Amino acid sequence: MVRFADDAVLCFQSREEAQQVLEELGKRMTEYGLKLHPEKTKLVDFRPPERGQSKGHGSLNFLGFCFYWARTRQGRAIVKLKTAKDRLTRKIKETGEWLRDNRHEPVPEQHAQLSAKIRGHLQYYGVSFNSRSLGNFVWEVTRRWRRWLARRGGKTYWSWERMKSFLVTYPLPIPRIVHRLFA
C-alpha cells in the first residue's frame, strides 16, 4: 500500500484478492458515511512486460504522475514515471491564462513570477525518465509567453529570433531531472 493524504494505491498478487478487498473496502467506507471516488477507484492490470515485449500491461496515475512499465537498455523490466497527461495539459493552460491576465505587468516582474512557476513545476515533476514532459512544459510556456508579449500594445511581430535574444536577457529555467529514482 502506498498512501499520500487521502490517495492510495493498493497492490495485490492476484486479481481475485484485489476484487475482494475492493468490495470490502467499499462496504467499510459506507459504514462511516464515506464512499470511494468512482472515477479514481479501479482495478489496473499492472504487470511487467513479457520477454520480447517493450511495454508492460496497464498504467496508473497517482499524485500527478503516470506510472508505466518499460524495459531498460539492458533489457530489464522497470517502472517508469512521466507527468500525467491531464496534469500537464492543465498546468500549461493555467500558465497561459496567467500570462494573458498579467501581460500588462512589467517584463521583469512577469519574468520573476513565471520563472518561479516553472521552477515549482520542475521541482515536483523533475524525476527520472520525465525529461520529455519537462521539456514540453517549458517549450509550451515559452510559446505562450511569446504570444502574449507580442500583444502588449503596438503591432509588433515577435519572431523566434527576437524571442531567442529576449530569452538571453530574461532566461527561463532549464528543464532538468532533480530527483534521481535509480542510481
If you had to describe this structure to a student in words, what would you say it looks like?
There is one protein chain. The protein has 183 residues and is α+β, with helices and mostly antiparallel strands. It has helices spanning 15-31, 85-101, 107-125, 131-150, 160-169, and strands spanning 2-4, 7-9, 59-62, 65-71, 77-83. A 3-stranded antiparallel sheet has the order 3-4-5. Helix 2 packs parallel to helix 4 and helix 3 (107-125) packs antiparallel against helix 4 (131-150). The longest helix is centred in the last third of the chain and has 20 residues, at 131-150.
Properties at a glance:
alpha+beta; 183 residues; 3-stranded antiparallel beta sheet; two-stranded antiparallel ribbon
Q: Into which percentage range does the β-strand content fall?
A: 5-15%
Quickly count the helices. Answer: 5
Q: What is the rounded distance between the termini?
A: 24 Å
CA-based gyration radius: 21 Å
Fraction in helix = 40-55%
Given helix and strand content, the structural type is alpha+beta
Order of helices and strands: EEHEEEHHHH
With strands numbered from the N-terminus, the spatial order across the biggest sheet is 3-4-5
Largest sheet: 3 strands, antiparallel
Average pLDDT for all residues: 90
What's the shape?
A: elongated
Low-confidence stretches: none
Number of strands: 5
